[in-house]
Amino acid sequence: MIAIMSHRMEALFGGLRSVQLTAGGVLFRGAARVSEMFMVSAGQIHLCRHSVHGSEMVLQRALSGMVVAEASAYSERYHCDAVAATDSIVRALPKSVFLSALATDPDLAANWAATLARAVQAARFRSEIRSLPIVADRLDAWLGEGNHLPEKGHWQDVANELGVTREALYRELALRRKGTAE
By C-alpha distance, which of 86, 48, 87 is closest to 69? Predict the structure, then answer.
């Protein structure tokens, strides 16, 4: 999010109700009515959807200063679950107040439109990655966008983002370690 947008959004969400979540805590579930918008103050919130096979796909990794489930501003119900990936704090703003601010502040609305456009671009990139048939290619594409592997206990998050099982990711990482050791 660009600096001007970040300051304006933070001011809009400032001083409002805070929600504290421990890692694994649910902010909202899919199909719940959208009555509030949420901005991450600390931690990381994942927007998740589960496939018909039960695997979890991470559709958004919302970090500090980011709005969770941006498109929900224009929806009656959430389409995904929002779950804290780490201990997190989010600020809640009534959806009606959020939309009113956009309607009365053209600069904020223009910056919000740019934020939504970047979210679409990110979603398309994730879709492109998930369309690659080989785990190695998915990981290369993800790393090529400037991402870095987290510490060992958080590789599951990368597997979810790549749309692969954690076992498939672990095998690929083991092959890479073996290849660099030779």
Answer: 48
Q: What share of the chain is helix, strand, coil (3-state, %, to 5)?
A: 50, 25, 30
The whole-model pTM stands at: 0.78
Q: Tell me the pLDDT tens digit for each residue of 109-168.
A: 988 898 899 888 888 888 888 889 999 999 999 998 888 888 877 788 788 788 888 899
Query: Quick one: CA torsion of 121, 125, 131, 132, rounded to 10 degrees?
Result: 160
- What the block records as the tokens of 29 is 């579930």
CA dist 92 and 166 (Å) reads 33
Residue 115 CA to residue 122 CA, distance in Å, equals 11
DSSP letters spanning 36-57: EEEEEEES-EEEEEE-TTS-EE
Q: How far apart are CA 16 and CA 114, in angstroms?
A: 25
- As assigned by CATH, the class of the 3-105 domain is mainly beta
How many CB atoms lie under 10 A from the CB of residue 24? 10
Instruction: Write the CB contacts of 72 (distance below 8 Å, at least 6 apart in sequence).
Output: 34, 37, 78, 79, 95
**CA pair distance 81, 47, nearest whole angstrom:** 6
